[in-house]
Specification:
With 165 residues, this protein is of the alpha+beta class. The chain contains four helices and six strands. The strands form two sheets. Strands 2-1-3-4 form a four-stranded antiparallel β-sheet, with helices on one face. Strands 5-6 form a two-stranded parallel ribbon. The structure holds adenosine-5'-diphosphate (ADP) and magnesium ion.
Length: 165
């Protein structure tokens, strides 16, 4: 599913690369996690793997496609949850999920089904700005699953959540 070969990435103007000598392989159906102290480069790596940071050295294959060759439709196939849940603060939970679901070409999941899965169904009509941090993180997770993607990237998905979740 994912093949990373000799990956190296330096932010513009950075003296040293943030990512260097990274090699790994993730098989279909595998759950693969990065552990490391803050500043280690986990988010940077996710941003490369999701096609947002370009200009890396080495190769990244998602499926059989090198990331440099991806088109817009790549985003129909992957789900991404960013570290910080960014939503429209004056929209409700449901309005946000409907809005983001509308950006996909393919049929999306019933928002209520996803909200139920994370215990947010009672808050469908709550404004995003009135959610707690953990509730925002749960909504962030729902958004990543809206289009039933084959591959999911989650940055610090347990942040703000209690162990039982
Ligand atoms: N947009 C950016 N521009 C320049 N440097 C950055 C940027 N984002 C992150 N960095 C640097 O890259 C390094 C790795 O950051 P990051 O990938 O966010 O780490 P992690 O997610 O593991 O905490 C840090 O030294 C950070 O300062
Ligand atoms: Mg990070």
């Amino acid at each position: 599913m994912i093949q990373v070969e000799n990956l190296e990435y330096a932010y513009p103007k950075a003296a040293v690369p943030t990512i260097k000598g990274v090699n790994f392989h993730v098989a279909d159906g595998e759950i693969f996690g990065f552990l490391g102290p803050s500043g280690a480069g986990k988010s940077t790596l996710q941003n490369i793997l999701t096609g947002m940071l370009k200009g890396y050295r080495g190769n990244v294959y998602i499926g059989n496609q090198e990331l440099r060759a991806i088109q817009e439709d790549f985003y129909e196939e992957i789900g991404v949850a960013f570290e910080f849940p960014n939503f429209y603060s004056r929209f409700t939970v449901l309005e946000n999920l409907r809005f983001f679901g509308g950006l996909y070409n393919r049929k999306t999941e019933d928002p209520y089904k996803l909200l139920k899965m994370v215990g947010l169904e009672q808050h469908a009509n709550t404004r995003f700005s009135n959610l707690s941090k953990g509730m925002k993180m749960r909504l962030n997770f729902c958004r990543a699953l809206l289009h039933d993607p084959a591959l999911i990237f989650l940055d610090e998905p347990t942040s703000g959540l209690e162990p039982s979740k």
